[in-house]
Every structure is written in C-alpha cells, then in structure tokens.
C-alpha cells in the first residue's frame, strides 16, 4: 500500500497559501447574507404561468382512458364467450351460459360498441335459423318458445326497427309457408293444424300466410270421410318420404257395384269355390250366384284377385282417381287388431253367408267388415306368385278365431265364396278433397 505524501514532502511552490482560506470563507458568508436580504417573499411569487394554465379551456376527461377499451379486458372476454356459445348453438340454454344473456350483458356495458352490435345481430340471425329448424321438424312447442325469447331479445337489444329483425321475421315466415305447403302436399291434417295454430300465434296477419292458413285448416285427419266421390272414402294416412297419402274404402265393393263393372266391361265370371267346403268344390257358382242369398248391398264374392284389379283400373279410368288393392302392410295398419266377440250380427263371423257391407260395426278409422263378413284380396303375392294374399276373417270363420284375420296365401286365378275386396286411393299432392268428421261407429 502506498502511503500519501506528507505535507512536508510537497514542494513549497505547490503548497496552498494559508491566508487564502479564511478570506474565501468570509467572502462567501457576506454574499449569502446579501442574497437573503434581497430575495422575494413567497407571496410575491410570479403566478402568471399557473394562471394561464387554469384559465385555458379544459378538455373533458376521456373515460376510455380510465377503463378497458371495448376490445380488451372484461368486454373482450364477454364477446369471446358469446361467439363460443353461438358456435356450439347455445342460444338460450344453459342459464348463465348462452348467447342471449352474454350479448345482452355486453350491450348493457358498451351499447354502441361495433363488436357488441355485430354480436347482437349474429345472435338474432341464429335464433331465426333455429326457430326455422324447429318449424321444419314439426316441433311447434320449441319454435313458439324460442320465438318468444327472440322477440324479447330484439326489444332489449333495440333491434326491432332494424334489418336484423325484419330478416328474422321473414326467415320464420318462409319456414312456416314451406312447412304448411309440405303438410298440404302430404295431406297431413294433424301437422297442418299445429302449424296453423303456430302461424296464428307468430305472424297472424301477413298476407303471404293467409292462403296457407286456409288450406291448412281444410286438411283431412285419419278417420275423416272424403266428400269428393260417391264411394265412401276414409282418409287413413298422410304421405311419407316413400309413400303417397292414402284413403281407404269404408267398406268392401258391393255386388251391385261389381255388376255395373261386369256389364260395362263385359268381363266374364271367374271360377269360384268354397275354401273349406270340399263337397261343393265343383259346384257351379260365380259372383252373381255364390251359393247363398245376396242382394246388391252385400260384398261381392267369388271374384279373383285379377277381377279385383280389373275393377280398380276400370273405376280409376271413370273417376280419375288412383285406385288399387291395398298391400299387406297397409291392410295391417288400417285394420288394427280384431276386437269384439266376433259374432254374426255385429261382426259377420260364424254366419250362413254374407251380410250387407255397411251393416257391421265400424272399427278403426270407422272402417267396417275388416274382421268379418268377407276376407279381402291384397296386392301381394306369395312364392312364385301362383298364390295371392288375402286378409281378414269371413262369415266362414267362427267367432274367437283371431288368427283367421292375418294375411294368408291362397291359390290365385280363382274366386272364393268368402273373399271380396276393397280399394285404397292414392292422393296426389295437388288434390285437396274436402273432408267430414269421422264415421260414427
């Protein structure tokens, strides 16, 4: 370590003069006193600069500088949550986690924010799409519920005078018209009535809907009697994606109706036999003389399935209707299970011959004779089609023999004294027959 040089080691020419230090101190004290005596007091300060600032016009405080901007912070979180809810279709559910509540909360905080406004309109558009989907699917209860929520949402969001609300109403109206048109084409009276009630609740006075409301109220329901033809047609099923709407005759074709066809067409009688009467197997009989007493009100028997199909074609040409024999599946649907005790007077079982076609008790859809009086030819065949299907019990079947009503195969190309037929009618989408209430059983 190098020691500092001692003062005695410094040359005399470099040593400080001792008289200078006290003189410097004395001079400094004198100058300081003089400054203090001449300094201004605090009340004498010049405030002209401060006055200029206070008197200048003041701009209002920008509140946006005091809180998060609309695209940041809590508002941004609300907007992001709302768009996630739209993406997963959480429009009105669950409580506390749906787009309606989320965007209304954002609207309450920043009503003029462009992103909030865009979210409100997007929500209303999605609500319209969802209401339209419920209408297409026939869920009128959900359509009504969500429409009410959408209307309340539009009011609270201030959208009822904007294009978004007009677009919502048009979307709902279009879906109602499409659904009503589909119901009319399918002759679906039950669905049509639900849609009419929905339209009357949501948009009752719009002129575009009025004609469809009128048509919707006229649609038939299963069991209604169609009033557009002399034969008693009963509506039984609306159209599906693969099948047309169907009506079925309330009873079998009578001997008097078949006689008119035979005279007009010149068609000769088919061979006829009894299904179980072997002793009379080769006795001569036909539809005009079946071996027991009949009048023109009884169902025709002793006709072959080919005779029945020829009659359907003849009547279709005369009437303009689309007529045919029913299939086994259709017959099961409109016949339903056999009911009652199957006695002769009420159901035509265990009798000595037939009874008038419309004299028996009405069953499902008001149809008569499905489980008694005569069995009925069907459109189906069995095996190599040398056999045809017939369904329903007849006067030959004893009461209580329920298995006799099921479709069964019998030899084709001939008639039987206990087998007749009824027809079904296919209804086209442009037909709109008037209907009456169901037949009284």
UniProtKB/TrEMBL annotation:
Domain of life: Bacteria
Keyword tags: Membrane, Transmembrane, Transmembrane helix
Sequence ranges assigned to domain Sulfatase-modifying factor enzyme-like in this UniProt record: 242-425
Disordered as annotated region, ranges: 393-413
Listed Pfam families: FGE-sulfatase
InterPro entries in the record: CTDL_fold (IPR016187), Sulfatase_Mod_Factor_Kinase (IPR051043), SUMF_dom (IPR005532), SUMF_sf (IPR042095)
Keyword Transport: no
Transmembrane region(s): 19-37
Entry-linked PANTHER family: FORMYLGLYCINE-GENERATING ENZYME, SULFATASE MODIFYING FACTOR 1, 2
Name under which the protein is recorded: Sulfatase-modifying factor enzyme-like domain-containing protein
Native species: Rehaibacterium terrae
Lineage: Bacteria, Pseudomonadati, Pseudomonadota, Gammaproteobacteria, Lysobacterales
């Amino acid at each position: 370590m190098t020691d500092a040089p001692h003062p005695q080691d410094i040359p005399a020419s470099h040593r400080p003069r001792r008289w200078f230090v006290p003189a410097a101190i004395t001079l400094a004290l004198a100058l300081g006193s003089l400054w203090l005596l001449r300094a201004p007091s605090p009340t004498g300060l010049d405030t002209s600069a401060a006055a200029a600032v206070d008197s200048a016009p003041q701009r209002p405080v920008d509140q946006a500088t005091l809180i998060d901007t609309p695209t940041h912070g809590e508002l941004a979180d609300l907007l992001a949550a709302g768009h996630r809810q739209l993406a997963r279709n959480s429009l009105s559910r669950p409580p506390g986690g749906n787009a309606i509540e989320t965007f209304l909360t954002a609207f309450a905080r920043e009503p003029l924010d462009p992103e909030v406004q865009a979210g409100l309109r997007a929500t209303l558009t999605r609500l319209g799409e969802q209401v339209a989907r419920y209408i297409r699917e026939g869920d009128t209860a959900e359509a009504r519920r969500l429409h009410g929520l959408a209307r309340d949402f539009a009011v609270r969001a201030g959208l009822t005078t904007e294009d978004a609300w007009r677009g919502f109403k048009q979307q709902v109206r279009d879906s109602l018209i499409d659904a009503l048109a589909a119901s009319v084409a399918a002759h679906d009276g039950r669905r049509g009535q639900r849609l009419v009630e929905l339209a009357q609740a949501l948009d009752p006075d719009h002129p575009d809907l009025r004609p469809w409301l009128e048509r919707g109220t006229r649609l038939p329901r299963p069991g209604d009697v169609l009033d557009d033809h002399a034969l008693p047609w009963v509506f039984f099923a609306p159209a599906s994606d693969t099948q047309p709407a169907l009506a079925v005759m309330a009873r079998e074709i009578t001997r008097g109706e078949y006689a008119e066809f035979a005279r007009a067409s010149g068609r000769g009688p088919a061979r006829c036999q009894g299904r179980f009467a072997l002793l009379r197997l080769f006795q001569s009989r036909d539809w005009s003389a079946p071996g027991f007493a009949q009048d023109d009100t009884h169902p025709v028997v002793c006709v072959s399935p080919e005779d029945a199909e020829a009659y359907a074609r003849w009547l279709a040409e005369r009437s303009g209707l689309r007529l045919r024999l029913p299939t086994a599946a259709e017959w099961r649907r409109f016949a339903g299970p056999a009911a009652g005790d199957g006695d002769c007077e009420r159901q035509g079982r265990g009798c000595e011959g037939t009874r008038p076609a419309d004299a028996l008790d009405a069953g499902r859809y008001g149809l008569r004779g499905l489980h008694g009086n005569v069995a009925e030819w069907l459109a189906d065949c069995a095996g190599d089609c040398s056999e045809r299907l017939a369904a329903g019990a007849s006067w030959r079947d004893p009461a209580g023999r329920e298995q006799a009503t099921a479709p069964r195969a019998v030899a084709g190309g001939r008639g039987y004294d206990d087998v007749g037929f009824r027809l079904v009618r296919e209804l086209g989408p442009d037909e709109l027959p008037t209907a009456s209430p169901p037949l009284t059983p």
